[in-house]
Amino acid sequence: MQPFAPRTVATCSSCDCARRFDGMRNFSTMRVHANNLFHRDVRVFAGATVFGSALSQDSFEDSQDSEGSLEGWRRAAAAALVRYEYRRDSVSESARSVSLPLRHVVARQLTVRLDFDARWIMISEIQFDSGQSYIVLCIQRIYNQSI
């Protein structure tokens, strides 16, 4: 296991965080608890992009093209896209929970790209509000009844 390497705006302009779930979920909201110590060059992210995919990380090999690239998987992962811009707060340095509306994205895996607004982003928690996808449940019931 490699040691954690901190990322800053000096080394990259964003950081990605991927999360795989047990099945298809209907995501309504994502909450990110972030710090805003701007006097120490720590700010809440400037923006967030959320990619949703019905493919799991384990099945991405099936999406590789003849040259073995992962473009097929990346295109599938970008199928459901939500973009959120955060308005900078230069008054309060307290940590806060930022709610991002996900507009009922249905996916099995989510990838969140957070864009830096300062040298550092300090995230303590990411929560997702979700439920089972009704459409997937209906299809599964119909399939199970036909067997």
Give the topology.
Blueprint: E1 14-34, E2 47-53, H1 71-77, E3 80-85, E4 96-115, E5 123-132, H2 134-146
Protein model, in words:
With 147 residues, this protein is mainly β. It has one domain: Jelly Rolls (Sandwich). 14% of the residues lie in helices and 44% in strands. The chain is built from two helices and five strands. The protein has a five-stranded antiparallel sheet with strand order 3-2-4-1-5. The relative contact order is 0.34. The model is unreliable at 56-69 (pLDDT under 50).
Observed structural traits:
elongated
* CATH topology group: Jelly Rolls
Radius of gyration: 18 Å
Q: Give the uncertain stretches in residue-range form.
A: 56-69
Count the helices. How many?
2
CATH class: Mainly Beta
- The first-to-last residue Cα distance is 44 Å
The helix/strand order is EEHEEEH
Give me the side-by-side strand order of the main sheet. Answer: 3-2-4-1-5
Strand content: 35-45%
